[in-house]
Amino acid sequence: MAHRFFVTAIGTDSGKTVFSAILCEALKADYWKPIQAGLPGDTDSVRTLVSNKKSKFHEEGIKLKTPASPHAAGKKEEVEVSLQRIELPETNNHLIIEGAGGVLVPLNDQENVIDIARRVNAEVIVVSNLYLGSINHTLLTLDWLSQNEIPVRGIVFNGDPNPESQEIILQRSGLEELLHIYTEEKITKKEIKKYAERIREKI
């Protein structure tokens, strides 16, 4: 059975793209970015990091040049941004879907990024980068997902270890840590393969 995972995070630049590449490599999965706001695009970044020949990189659903929330970028560029414009790509393979920013980043005045996960029936994985304040941001994100009955597969931590933060997040959420991505001097295909091996048995 093919998996469909929606990768979100507790904020912007939390490590979603790197983790999406890791997951694509681990599962030899396809990749799809429903909404791209800003250039260069994340699809190109993931493509350069994935080594296997099976993964396909589907065209973004909506492309915006402005590096801002989709609702703001859409207004600036006079582009309609809505769930109705986003069509799931056809594939029989596992599919990794990367969100934009965090769960409540607005698509428009009524819809949010996380609504894409519900629309395509994808299981969510949350990336939490470890910084001062990340406990609150992570638990708020997870609590909102729980209250809205959105299934979460687990948590990925990103950055230098912070055992106290990681332990309390896992304890209070009751979720599994799927992977810890440590601070690397550079992220290359070699690093992606290394982390792919670590997460493969957990997915």
Automatic annotation (TrEMBL):
Q: Where does Mg(2+) bind?
A: T17, E98
Q: Which domain of life is it from?
A: Bacteria
Q: Which SUPFAM superfamilies match?
A: P-loop containing nucleoside triphosphate hydrolases (SSF52540)
The residues annotated as the active site are: K33
Q: What class of enzyme is it?
A: ligase
Enzyme Commission (EC) number: 6.3.3.3
Q: Which residues bind ATP?
A: D13, S14, G15, K16, T17, V18, E98, G99, A100, G101
Compartments, record wording: Cytoplasm
Q: Does the keyword ATP-binding apply?
A: yes
Which family does the UniProt entry place this protein in? Answer: Belongs to the dethiobiotin synthetase family.
Subunit structure of this chain's protein? Homodimer.
Q: What is this protein called?
A: ATP-dependent dethiobiotin synthetase BioD
Task: List the lineage, top down.
Answer: Bacteria, Pseudomonadati, Bacteroidota, Cytophagia, Cytophagales
